[in-house]
Amino acid sequence: QVQLVESGGGLVQAGGSLRLSCAASGSLFIINTMAWYRQAPGKQRELVAVITVGGSTNYADSVKGRFTISRDNAKNTVYLQMNSLKPEDTAVYYCNADLRKTPYGMDYWGKGTLVTVSS
After folding, report:
1. What is the pLDDT of residues 2-24, one digit of tens each?
2. What DSSP string runs through 1-60?
């Protein structure tokens, strides 16, 4: 069973930084794409950043230049460095592992970690 466990959320003042981590375990196959999503109260879940096993990245326009996604393939861990945080970054952040093109045939989600940015 594939499991994703996020950590690193918390309360921070506007302008501050946080680093999220997501450790994946249990996969028998390489996780080609890992991503961070977020869901703010009353809003739909949205993609924040994505990274492939080769290191290619893509970001939502709202976080470009402030957030950096990275991964350690040996540890099956993905990170999200969040700088210059804004109150509108407040959300539950979810880790995603795309295993749809493997025999698992689906993607997996962590339970989420809450990030609160105070003004």
Report:
1. 999 999 999 999 999 999 999 99
2. --EEEEE--EEEETT--EEEEEEEES-SS---EEEEEEE-TTS--EEEEEEETT--EEE-
